[in-house]
Amino acid sequence: MSGTMTHAKDNSCCVSICHLFFDYSTPKILVIRSKKVGAINRITQALVIAYIIGYVCVWEKGYQDTDSILSSVTTKVKGIAVTNTSELGLRIWDVADYIIPPQVPSRYFEEEEESSFFVLTNLIVTQNQTQTHCAEIPSVASICSSDKNCKAGFRGPRGNGVRTGRCVNFNPTVKTCEVLAWCPLERDGEPPNPPMLADAENFTVLVKNNIRFPKFNFNKRNILPQINSSYLKHCVFNRSTDPECPIFRLKDMVEEAEEDFQTMAVHGGVMGVQIRWDCDLDMPGSWCVPRYNFRRLDNKDPTNTVSPGYNFRFAKYYKEGDNEETRTLIKGYGIRFDIMVFGQAGKFDIVPTLLNIGAGLALLGLVTVVCDWIVLTFMTKRNHYREQKYSYVDDFGLIPQE
Q1: Distance (Å, whole) CA 241 – CA 223
Q2: What pLDDT does residue 215 have?
Q3: Which domain holds residue 122?
Q4: 383 is in an annotated binding site
Q5: Are strands 204-213 and 247-249 parallel, antiparallel or unpaired?
Q6: Neighbours of 376 (CB within 10 A)
Q7: What is its main location (predicted)?
């Protein structure tokens, strides 16, 4: 008896597998006269159509082919600053003094790379240094009591020179190891506040940006065709009154990043100048214009005051009448401006247009699937709808020929 039941089950499984393999499904149109189902269907269709037209076609411009930007940037800073200190006396600073290194054109670069320039705003000066012997700056490693504490020839990674092996007086109460170095040694400390080159806030920079979209053979620059020489001599960028002027006042750039120039100038910092070109080349070329934005890039966390800002050292060398070389060491603080160019261009192309139309039609086809799922799962008459939607017809063979 059990063998008969097992055999029947095997036959049932075989029949089910055969039906699954050899069944053929053909679409059947079932018209459901229901306000709820009809409303769901139309609302879903409207959402899909709104997505295709509003987002894909209008917002994302899915009918366009796109190209990334190639860009070249050059800068030219102008301005005069005056200082009057005990170390330097009355002095005039021009562009050759406060732009370090000297301005040179940048190469062509791809999207999101940088071109930079540095403006000196503050400094610590150590004058009349010569290569001779002097006492090292006091520190845990350099303080000594006798010559035995100073190893001749030792060069510490944080020292200022090569030790001679002697322990000498740094001042009447402290002894340190003697070094062969540029003496007198720099007395490092806090930079002057207010900054020495406070006038730097009124310096201006001309930014010349040439861009190219190679796929569309489109070239342009941020000095627009309507800008002439007389206008360029007097204009300064202002977002509301002069948004097309490529000359920027340094103070305005820093303030647009919601920073105070004089505070930032004490220890220095890093500013980002973002130039964005988003061009629709189906429109006139005059509509393709740059958009400028400014933001501070370095960390300005007020709770972390270790090594703030941006600084480096450089020296100016001289030779006296006796042919002895001397130098003036400068620890310079300032603001580095990184110019970053972004953007892309789009232009009509048949291939992306057809691809997005096809994707839209496929999404419309999903509306029927969604509505069928709702009808057969959540409606009160779902069993009745299922009976009407699915019909099963057995194979009675082909129609005989007369």
Answers
A1: 16
A2: 93
A3: 69-136+185-348
A4: no
A5: antiparallel
A6: 14
A7: membrane
Q: Is 313 annotated as a binding residue?
A: yes
Q: Is 78 annotated as a binding residue?
A: yes
311 annotated as a binding-site residue = yes
Query: Treating both helix axes as pointing N-terminal to C-terminal, what angle do 382-389 and 350-378 enclose, rounded to 10 degrees?
Result: 120
220 in a known ligand binding site: no
Tell me the per-residue pLDDT of 184-240, one tens digit each, with 9 for 90 and over: 998 878 899 889 999 999 999 999 999 999 999 999 999 999 889 899 988 999 998
Residue 77 assigned ligand-binding role: yes
Provide long-range contacts, Cβ within 8 A and 24+ apart, for 213-217.
213/67, 213/68, 213/69, 213/70, 213/279, 213/281, 213/344, 213/345, 214/67, 214/70, 215/65, 215/67, 215/345, 216/67, 216/281, 216/345, 216/347
* Higher local confidence (pLDDT), 112 or 341: 341
d(CA 212, CA 67): 10
Residue 31 annotated as binding site? no
Q: How many domains does the chain have?
A: 1
Tell me whether residue 99 is in a domain.
yes
CA atoms within 13 A on the CB side of 192: 17
Residue 76 in marked binding region? yes
Helix (H) or strand (E) holding 251, with range, is helix 250-256
CATH number for 264: 2.60.490.10
> Residue type at 118?
F
Residues 92, 80 contacting (CB under 8 angstroms): yes
Structural contact between residues 58 and 50, judged by C-beta atoms closer than 8 angstroms: no
